[in-house]
Design a protein that fits this description.
By secondary structure, the chain is an alpha+beta fold. Helices cover 28% and strands 34% of the residues. A hairpin with a 5-residue loop joins strand 16 and strand 17. Its main location: other.
Length: 428
């Protein structure tokens, strides 16, 4: 039954009211969620970037130029057989140091002793003939003076005496030659040095002109250190010298320091002793040589080492850490901090690489502050939070320059420049 008096029909208006309120609830929830999402997606508030700065200084900076070099014996002597004959034995230990005058090889002396004996016999015969000729001349002279003998007899006696003298001189030369050949059977070292391995074995027959090479002896003290510089590097240094950006010591008195393969420094320092006046047509490089004392024989011929040349100076140079220099689309730049602790971008011209630093040729002045650490977070004209101030990179040391491209933070061994060659080129 149904009708207005039944209770089950009374809540119908409430259900309709609830249904009317549902769309309103959904609208409120949607607006709340949209407002929350919009607020979350907005950019966060920017804070002052934290950086460290450095005050730029300009001062004369000593420069150390590094390059790859190779050691060479100052005297490399071939030990050769000077006469033909059989090799008896080797008397030195291969690879050991030898002294000047030390016997290294012995050849069979018997044939040479016999040749010497023959030469001495010939000399004795010629000396006897000379004695007879002299006595004959002594008898002929007074008789010729008394005209008891003809002038022809006197001339013959004088000629015979002169021939006998010449024969004696020739025989003496043969004796000296035989003595020399006998002496050559004992082969000695002409200098103090390091002996190489033997090229010939005991019992070999040696021919002086072809198979006479026996070994080498290398003088170790002093030792030479050779390095090369390319034509481009030469021109680069000449340009810097002309522009006053680089100064070499008087008379090119550079000091050469050698760094071994493990990075240790060789205790003896050297000096430039030779610069080739011409470029090599094979490599297009310019050879420079330094000479170093090597009393203990630490350096051996053929070693690859690092040579550091000191003595050059960059006047009024500005040196900044590499991490302070950023690469832009067209050039390098740094962030310069003003008095209000705001940063402005400044284009700079970078020069040579120097360890972890760069020489700045143009764009910075002494007294200006630049951002070193945190430069990647800097925004133009935004106040900075300066966390610390770094000391100048020029304080307390020399700059080790490795020649290379301005955009390359590191330079290869083949592109490192050398000061002595540039000095020699400038003088040319």
């Amino acid at each position: 039954m149904s009708g207005p008096f039944f209770p089950e029909h009374r809540p119908l208006p409430r259900v309709a009211a609830r249904r009317d309120r549902l769309p309103l609830i959904f609208v409120v929830i949607a607006l709340t969620l949209f407002a929350g999402c919009k607020k979350a997606s907005g950019p966060p508030a920017l804070g002052a970037p934290e950086v460290t700065v450095m005050t730029v200084t300009a001062q004369d900076t000593p420069v150390q130029l590094e390059f790859t070099a190779q050691t060479q014996s100052s005297r490399e002597v071939e030990i050769r057989a000077r006469v033909d004959g059989f090799l008896d034995r080797r008397t030195y230990s291969e690879g050991d140091k030898v002294k000047a005058g030390q016997t290294m090889f012995l050849m069979d002396p018997k044939p040479f002793q016999a040749a010497l004996q023959t030469a001495r016999g010939e000399l004795a015969q010629q000396q006897a003939r000379l004695t007879v000729a002299q006595q004959n001349l002594a008898r002929v002279k007074p008789l010729a003076a008394q005209q008891a003998l003809s002038q022809k007899d006197l001339d013959d006696a004088i000629g015979n005496e002169k021939q006998a003298q010449a024969a004696v001189i020739s025989a003496q030369g043969q004796v000296e030659t035989a003595e020399l050949n006998l002496g050559y059977t004992t082969i000695k070292s002409p200098l103090d040095g390091l002996a190489s391995y033997a090229r010939q074995q005991d019992g070999s027959y040696l021919i002086a002109n072809s198979s006479g090479l026996l070994t080498f002896v290398y003088q170790l003290d002093p030792v030479w250190v050779n390095f090369s510089i390319s034509e481009n590097e030469m021109l680069h240094f000449q340009d810097e010298i002309s522009a006053g950006k680089l100064i070499f010591p008087p008379n090119s008195e550079f000091v050469v320091v050698v760094l071994l393969a493990d990075g240790t420094e060789f205790p003896q320092h050297g000096a430039i002793s030779f610069a080739n006046p011409a470029f090599s047509t094979d490599t297009g490089t310019f050879l420079v040589r330094a000479s170093l004392a090597n009393p203990k024989g630490t350096l051996r011929p053929g070693q690859f080492v690092r040579a550091r040349v000191t003595g050059a100076t960059r006047p009024n140079a500005v040196l900044v850490p590499q991490r302070a220099v950023l690469q832009g689309a067209k050039s390098h730049f740094v962030w310069v901090v003003d008095n209000e602790s705001k940063a402005k971008q400044r284009v700079v011209e970078v020069g040579d690489w120097s360890g972890d630093n760069w020489f700045i040729n143009d764009g910075l002045k002494a007294g200006e502050r630049i951002v070193v650490d945190g430069a990647i977070r800097v925004v133009p004209d935004v106040p900075l939070k300066i966390a610390g101030t770094l000391p100048s990179t020029q304080t307390g040391g020399k700059a080790v320059v490795e020649k290379g491209g301005a955009s390359a933070p590191q330079a290869s061994a083949s592109t490192r420049a050398t000061a002595p060659a540039a000095s020699s080129g400038a003088s040319q």
